[in-house]
Write a structure and sequence with these properties.
Layout lengths: L23 E6 L3 H12 L4 E8 L2 H8 L6 E4 H6 L8 E4 L6 H10 L3 E4 L7 H14 L3 E3 L7 H11 L6 E11 H4 L10 H4 L3 H17 L5 E7 L11 E8 L3 E8 L1 E12 L2 E5 L11 E5 L2 E5 L6 H15 L7 H20 L3 E2 L1
Parallel strand pairs: 1-2, 1-4, 2-3, 4-5, 5-6, 7-10
Antiparallel strand pairs: 7-11, 8-9, 8-15, 9-10, 11-12, 12-13, 13-14
């Protein structure tokens, strides 16, 4: 195939777009920096979505965040759980500490609202299964927020792999890292609390190369090895660094790392029998993503107009909701990651290979 054929239409969406439909109104649950700096601006750029409600444990915080926005109201978590303002939104975006996802999703499902839940879904597979069951029983859409599924560089890489450009995949090398305490200089933050986070480097960052590998291969892990270690005292309850090895079907292996105590970086390299694809950088939305390819006597770096990862994710969710289409990242898809993460932590404790 010709690499040139990917240049002009690189960022074109290969999923159905909607025309002349009412925007999906979102209640954004959790008012941390990600919602303020990423989610709300992304929705503002969207043609298919709008923010109508902000939810916080503190009513005052929610009202303050909503001030200055004529079409947005701020409400307390108690009012949200009670369904006091349920008529004001069509869907819920849950972006709270991992261990609180279940409660907020159960309330959304009880109100008949579609759910976009941040990853990881929950702190354990048991709680993740309860989250899925709540949405299944209410017959509401549950989409886990894997924004790499709608990142143009990842989607084009998947097309190239599926069309055999690099031959048969053999190995994947991936990683994601960043200096957490420089980005969020608070040693009391929830990511460092094992009960709220469930883990740290693996849960928060390792899930990116894990899930993106699954997406690119269209395959699920069969076994894992893992090792964790912690240096900084603030990470006493959780993992600061992790390395893990994933065994996929057809003898494909992924070797990945994640760190919350190192330079900010992200990459994924897929090596095949006839070529390779490198996505570097890839996972952080504020870095311009790049893709380099080699295979079939051709090589090059594809430059493309950057898409807002969060806008792509919200609009894909809205499209699935309005067209009654199942997304790739269903709750059952997300549960596979939770089980794999649990297995990495088990392997880190036992030193054993864990089958899934």
């Amino acid at each position: 195939m010709s690499l040139e054929s990917y240049f002009d239409s690189f960022t074109d969406r290969d999923w159905s777009r909607m025309d002349n439909t009412e925007p999906v109104r979102f209640a954004l649950v959790g008012l941390g920096w990600w919602v303020h700096e990423q989610a709300m601006p992304a929705i503002e750029q969207s043609d298919f979505c709008e923010t109508s409600v902000l939810v916080s444990r503190s009513a005052d915080k929610a009202e303050e965040a909503a001030s200055g926005h004529d079409s947005i109201i701020g409400i307390s978590a108690d009012d949200y759980h009670a369904g006091e303002y349920a008529d004001s939104y069509d869907a819920v975006y849950v972006c709270t500490p991992n261990a609180t996802h279940l409660d907020y999703v159960e309330s959304a499902a009880a109100q008949g609202k579609a759910v976009l839940c941040e990853k990881p879904m929950e702190v354990s597979s048991e709680r993740a299964k309860r989250l899925i069951a709540a949405c299944d029983e209410a017959n509401v859409l549950l989409y886990v927020a894997y924004r790499m599924h709608t990142e143009p560089a990842v989607r084009r890489a998947k097309e190239l792999i599926d069309e055999g450009f690099i031959g048969d995949p053999v190995q994947i090398h991936g990683g994601m890292s960043g200096p957490l305490l420089d980005l969020v200089p608070d040693t009391d933050q929830w990511r460092l609390d094992a009960d709220l986070a469930g883990g740290c480097a693996m849960m928060d960052l390792g899930i990116y190369p894990l899930n993106t590998s699954r997406f690119l291969l269209d395959s699920d892990p069969e076994a894992v090895y893992g090792a964790t270690h912690t240096v900084h005292p603030a990470f006493e309850e959780v993992d600061e660094h992790v390395g893990f090895h994933i065994e996929f079907p057809d003898d494909v292996a992924a070797v990945c790392t994640a760190s919350h105590g190192s330079y900010m970086s992200s990459h994924l390299r897929i090596l095949g029998t006839a070529g390779e694809l490198t996505l570097d950088p890839i996972f952080y939305p504020w870095n311009d993503r790049e893709i380099r390819v080699r295979g079939h006597g051709a090589s090059g770096q594809i430059s493309f107009e950057q898409a807002n990862q969060m806008t792509e994710e919200f609009e894909y969710f809205a499209t699935c909701l309005r067209t009654n289409t199942d997304p790739v990242a269903t709750g059952h898809h997300g549960l596979v990651d939770i089980r794999a993460i649990e297995a990495v932590y088990e392997s880190a404790k036992t030193g054993e290979r864990i089958t899934l």
